[in-house]
Amino acid sequence: MFELPQLDLKNKVSAEEWQARVDLAACYRLVEDMGWGDLIYTHISAKVPGTEHYLVNAFGLSFDEVTASNLVKVDLQGNILDETPFDINPAGFTIHSAVHEARADAHCVIHLHTNATIAVSTLKEGLLPLSQYSCFSLNSIGHHGYEGLAVNPEEKKRLQEDMGTNNFLLLPNHGALTVGPTVGDAFMRMYDLQRACEIQLLVQATGQEVIEVAPEIVEGISKQANVVHSGSTGGQKSWPAMLRKAYRLDPGFAS
């Protein structure tokens, strides 16, 4: 059996970078546990605090093999900055670099190919206000049309324009993307979007008439969420619990 190279960067990077690595590795493990992975494909990236450098998964590893130490540090051009036996998927990082370049607030970018997000993004009507989960997304959602595999640098500008200031992006025929100021925020936004898409497909599958959430209620959800989170973000409130879950699944991610 092929053995992965064992790396240990814990005492070789700053405390801030190590925490970013632990959070990002945990996110990969949680995405795999949720059943949202796609073998070795799709990516989650996170900014190294205080720098213009980013962490992303090594190409060829499944999400349950990602650790804090085997994440690869790159710049916005996808150049690998540290000594590592691993490469990255250049096509995969094209999307992430486009978002990081245009959105200084997007410290974490999650791009996935789940069945539910592909299905809903490909419907002409897109995401509908059919659940509380959808309301979290509908106030801040964009759409970026499919242009094939993300290897064309010219697509970056169009993706940036379609993303705008939104925190959610549906990619018809392709999947979805969420961003956040922390790994936890981006994760919870993907959780809300995924649940919204799953529920929409279940409702539509009944073939019965639906009850949509009224537009004025959708608009008020953001303010209500702030009250629920007591001034904190959803990611700040939920991430400690998610991190504990990742440790229960396999503490090896934090090595």
Question: Would you summarize the structure shown here?
Answer:
The chain has 255 residues and is α+β, with helices and mostly antiparallel strands. The chain contains 8 helices and 7 strands; from the N terminus they run αβββαβααβαββααα. The two termini are 21 Å apart.
Structural notes for this entry:
The protein has eight helices and seven strands; from the N terminus they run αβββαβααβαββααα. It starts with 14 loop residues before the first helix and ends in a 6-residue tail after the last helix. A hairpin with a 3-residue loop joins β6 and β7. It has a single domain, classed as L-fuculose-1-phosphate Aldolase (3-Layer(aba) Sandwich). The mean pLDDT is 89. With 255 residues, the protein is an alpha+beta fold. Helix content is 43%, strand content 11%. A seven-stranded mixed β-sheet has the order 3-2-1-4-7-6-5, sandwiched between helices.
